[in-house]
């Protein structure tokens, strides 16, 4: 769920402003999976804009303290959330770790990089939620290391039903600064898209596999 409507609106505004999110319902993008999509999101671009990255890090930090209290450690999901996760940890004056998709094959063979102790409380930072599988893989690695995961905070979520189910099945709380529904509202309000394009974008989000079949 989003933290609140005001944050979701502002987050959509800044992500569209710097083209971290692009909407092209008439000329869809091709994802790595091969799917056609009318939206492309790369929140790593946030790091290149000091004012906007400061907004994201301070808003995330404030909401983390409001909803979870101050954790012992902040964790970022590699690789997309390492940058923003480190910024949030720095703002909160907390230690930072990050979680790889899988353990390294050499050296210490770590999946969790950085210092954290069993039983410590951690909030996980993610940049983008699609199906949620890679994000929840990081949560599972932390839990396996006997770390208490209080919740996850992400910049943006596509709001897919499958992601909602995956987080519910994992009994993991997720909060996001922005989501797809509020993104479309902001894009329409600022004439970034037309009402017809909004309808196309909403159809894709409701059933992306069927949209691709057409």
Model description:
It is a single chain. This protein has 214 residues and is an alpha/beta fold. It has a single domain (5-213), classed as Rossmann fold, CATH 3.40.50. Helices cover 43% and strands 21% of the residues. It contains 8 helices and 10 strands. The chain has helices at residues 5-17, 50-68, 82-92, 133-144, 161-169, 180-189, 195-206, 208-213, and strands at residues 21-23, 29-30, 36-37, 39-41, 73-77, 96-99, 112-113, 121-129, 148-157, 174-179. It has a 6-stranded mixed sheet, sandwiched between helices. A two-stranded antiparallel sheet has the order 1-4. It has a two-stranded antiparallel ribbon with strand order 2-3. Strand 2 and strand 3 form a beta hairpin. The two termini are 30 Å apart. One of its GO terms (biological process) is pyrimidine nucleobase biosynthetic process. One of its GO terms (molecular function) is orotate phosphoribosyltransferase activity. Homodimer.
């Amino acid at each position: 769920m989003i933290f609140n409507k005001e944050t979701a609106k502002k987050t959509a505004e800044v992500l569209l402003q710097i083209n971290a999110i692009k909407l092209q319902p008439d000329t869809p993008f091709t994802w790595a999976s091969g799917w056609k999509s009318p939206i492309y999101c790369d929140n790593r671009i946030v790091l290149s804009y000091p004012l906007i990255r400061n907004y994201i890090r301070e808003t995330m930090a404030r909401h983390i303290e409001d909803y979870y209290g101050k954790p012992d450690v902040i964790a970022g999901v590699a690789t997309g959330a390492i940058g923003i996760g480190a910024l949030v940890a720095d703002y909160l004056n907390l230690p930072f770790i990050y979680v790889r998709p899988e353990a390294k094959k050499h050296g210490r063979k770590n999946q969790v990089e950085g210092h954290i102790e069993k039983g410590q409380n951690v909030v996980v930072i993610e940049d983008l939620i699609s199906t949620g599988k890679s994000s929840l893989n990081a949560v599972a690695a932390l839990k396996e290391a006997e770390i208490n995961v209080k919740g996850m905070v992400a910049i943006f979520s596509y709001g897919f039903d499958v992601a909602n189910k995956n987080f519910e099945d994992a009994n993991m709380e997720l909060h996001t600064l922005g989501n797809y529904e509020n993104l479309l509202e902001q894009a329409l309000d600022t004439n970034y898209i037309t009402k017809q394009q909004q309808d196309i974008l909403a159809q894709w989000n409701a059933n992306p596999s069927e949209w691709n079949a057409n």
